[in-house]
Write a structure and sequence with these properties.
With about 220 residues, this protein is mainly α. The protein has helices spanning about 5-10, 25-30, 35-65, 70-80, 85-105, 105-115, 120-135, 135-160, 165-190, 200-210.
């Protein structure tokens, strides 16, 4: 694993748009479901082991390269029932490809950008970026799994005013689960595309639709 490249690809300073998205946390905070570091931990754990697993598997499957990226994109679309989440995922996918092109020019990035008029879903874009950066499937899965929790965790400091050290402690406690999810995702990526994980979080989907109707909000999703 190229640790330096992995760190660059997962760096929050990469202009991939994730800073503008809370991963569903803003709606969870508004409803009172997340209000402190303990409930943040529960939220992140649930997100990691559901949509995080699915995202990591699709990112790794894109790196494996046996499947058509358009087929992977279609399969991921079918696993994303919320229209608001689909729009957010494609927006983030477009931005990620643009950022990856600057750092790691690769023809695969152009190919994945063409899978849909609105751009690829974020995990497909992440997998293509990982290929361009020279990462293997396990590294891509680990980075994608980590990204499933770091984005919402960063949003927590703005939404709840939590002590950043407390948020860091929450993320550190999740590290073993991140590794487990990434390992399961990388293993699943070896199989047929149709058999990739389809774990979802119904409450995240419902909340995303409500959140999209808000006139005033801090995050895009």
């Amino acid at each position: 694993m190229d640790l330096v490249t992995l760190l660059l690809l997962t760096d929050s300073r990469l202009p991939a748009g994730t800073h503008a998205h809370s991963g569903g946390l803003e709606a969870a905070v508004d409803s009172g479901r997340v209000r402190d570091d303990a409930t943040l931990h529960a939220f992140l754990l649930g997100r990691l082991t559901s949509v995080g697993l699915t995202s990591a598997a699709f990112a790794a499957a894109t790196v494996v390269g046996d499947g058509d990226p358009a087929e992977l994109d279609d399969e991921y679309d079918a696993r994303t029932p919320s229209p608001a989440q689909r729009r957010a995922s494609r927006r983030l996918g477009r931005q990620l490809v643009r950022a990856a092109r600057a750092g790691w020019p690769h023809p695969g990035l152009d190919k994945v950008l063409a899978v849909h008029p609105d751009g690829p879903h974020q995990p497909i874009a992440f997998g293509a970026a990982a290929v361009a950066a020279g990462l293997d499937p396990p590294a891509a899965a680990q980075a994608a799994a980590l990204g499933a929790v770091t984005g919402p965790a960063n949003a927590a400091t703005r939404l709840l005013g939590l002590d950043p050290d407390a948020v860091t402690a929450v993320l550190a406690s999740l590290a073993p689960t991140v590794r487990q999810v990434a390992s399961a995702a990388a293993e699943a990526a070896r199989g047929p595309v149709a058999d990739l994980p389809a774990s979802s979080a119904l409450l995240l989907d419902i909340s995303a639709e409500h959140h999209a109707t808000w006139e005033v909000r801090l995050f895009a999703s």
